[in-house]
Amino acid sequence: MSRILPADGVEFEFTVPVVVIGGGAAGMVAALAAHEQGAGVLVLERDALPQGSTALSAGLVPAPGTRWQRDAGIEDSPERFAADIIAKAKGEPDPAAVARVAQAVGPALEWLADRYGLPFSVVDNFSYPGHSARRMHGLPSRSGAELIDRLRGAVETAGIDVLCEAHVTALYADGALVRGVEITRPDGSVERVGCGALILACNGYGGNRALVERHVPELADALYFGHPGNQGDALLWGEALGAATRHLSGHQGHGSVAHPAGILVTWATITEGGVQVNAQGQRFSNEAQGYSEQAAIVLRQPDGIAWTVFDERIAAIARQFEDFRQAEAMGAVLSADTPAELARLMRIDADALTATLADIDRLKATGGTDCFGRDFTGAAPLVPPYRAVRVTGALFHTQGGLVVDDEARVLDGNGARLPNLYAAGGAACGVSGSKASGYLSGNGLLTAVALGRIAGSAAASAAKEETNR
Hints:
GO terms for molecular function: oxidoreductase activity. Its cofactor is FAD. The chain is an alpha/beta fold. It contains 14 helices and 21 strands. It has two domains: 3-247 and 400-468, 3-Layer(bba) Sandwich (FAD/NAD(P)-binding domain); 251-395, Flavocytochrome C3, Chain A, domain 1. 34% of the residues lie in helices and 23% in strands. The strands form four sheets. Strands 1, 2, 3, 7, 8, 9, 10, 20 and 21 form a nine-stranded mixed beta sheet that branches. Strands 11, 13, 14, 15, 16, 17 and 18 form a seven-stranded mixed beta sheet that branches. Strands 4-6-5 form a three-stranded antiparallel beta sheet.
């Protein structure tokens, strides 16, 4: 349904200076930014309630040099953050694109806090793989559901129009100039809305099995843990309008989704000293490299299943996340006083698990590195009571997309700007490169918030210029 139709002769029911497709974090931030510039804004959301992939995440946004970091005594800077992003992605991302979001995200979070009352704080009691400073920021529940709820509340308070159950099924364009959108309602009725500028904030293509098979074949059969509405509309519309794309195989996976509960289990269970074992009770990788690349590794285990094993100390850290508390409430987190008893609950070989955990204890005691390259120097030993969660690997969202410039305007294959098309969040090419291993924790919400604000401000300014001509 991602069609481009000729605008010639089309009559629009009404026209709005800035139309935003998608009511997730990127769309809501873009709408707030455009509204602040004085532009009329309409957010179009296909669901009955704006949520998007944001609601399925932990809601953590990485940002450097913020006041929350300073209050916690954490030294950081946009340059340091940018270096971490590029290092994780092995130099693949465009340095200018990385610098753009690394510099913009901190001020964006402080703007959301000061202007709209979002009570951010920094996660200061554990580190994520690849981050050289503790820079993850979240709301009190540490949940994406709270983040999108508060953003939606800010949009409503600002008086910005949000039209739900409004599925955009086509764009109307004169060449590459977008004139408006076609909205299809649940009852099949169609509306046509004109626009001065269009912001694509409808994420990537993770929910489109055909596109996943084409670009990320290793996860074609994986559990999809993103929003089902992520059908690649932005990508398909952009390509039809002549937009350049980049790193379409890039994606965020996750190697720790509780199965069959379907609840994200925070990676703090690993970074704080936990491990993963397979159905034979044996470790199979360096889990500490990152949760994104771990998805495909877990899926290569028997039945695509692994167990994340940790202890009560780590569980106490994990309980700051609402998802983990839900997993415990559902009985997905097993508990036992000995490795053998834990293995019995897991229904795996007790001798194998006992030997595996003993080996880990030895490595931690000696500061050793295992055969997979994981360095256990400084890691606390696992002590009773032990914990375990049955997990699988999943695809969360794609990271490749439309190439944008410093104003989040979509570029064509020659590097020229498309007239009035902008992209943010998963619709735009992210900063993770072409592989799952390039994903640095938080990269998804990084581009949602940073590019969302950039796109909203720029689209509003462009729409006003067009109106004044």
